[in-house]
Amino acid sequence: MKERAFERIKTSLNVNFSIGNENHSGTVTNMSKNGMFINTKNCPPHKSKFDLLIPSDEGVLSVPVKVRRLLKVSHDYDGMGVELLNPSNQYYEFFNSMRSDTIHNVKLANIKTKLFMCKRCNYIAFEQAPTLCPFCKASIDSFDNNPDSLNILEEFDNIGDFEKKHFPVITLLKEFDSKRECKFTEAHVKIGEIEHDMDIDNHIKIIDFYLNESNHNKECVARFNLNCRRMNPEATIRLNNVSSGVLTVVTNCSSHGSWMTEAHL
User: Fold this and answer.
1) To pair with 209 at 20 to 30 A between CA atoms, which of 16, 98, 125, 222?
2) Considering the entire predicted model, what is its pTM?
């Protein structure tokens, strides 16, 4: 597959557009400096041109676009890829702010805590080692108390390209109900800002998600085992009825150890 010329970021932007005299809506699920993908049941014909209306902090941003591809599920259209026509400086500023939110949402203060790593499967327990590893069932004797075995992100701006290939980048998307209460929080993780290779000798093995609500200890709520031949180093989970707390993501590289990032929900 041909590599995209522009970086794409995941979003959940509600947008509007008009075709003829009819107004329609959709959700932008990813965007770049020259294109977007919009989930909508109201897809205009291929090569149609129209203005996409995007809400922003500065008001409504009008972006001229052209339909480049249509996604059809069964007999119904479900979305469309659009090309931006002569994007304005306002759009570039908006895109950069979205990208900045994605990256800088993962700042982490210095952590002083006890860490215990399973020597068999690289699962990390915080504060105390479990009697049995929840994933490989190894005994407590298989856990090393070794904080130096985990690389912990403090500030994205102060790391080099090697680190940027390993630290998880977390994007949080929240959906609210009519009472402005959080229905769910979707967390998408990419390893890393510069995508990590997935070679046999150097690949991302696992991505672990931990949730820390109120004063509770970090609880591992999901693990993704990645096949280096088949999968990109990315994963997404959806947290229901969770509006606050801390999400911790730990990943393990087959050659360069474990790496951790956190984001406040």
Assistant:
1) 98
2) 0.60
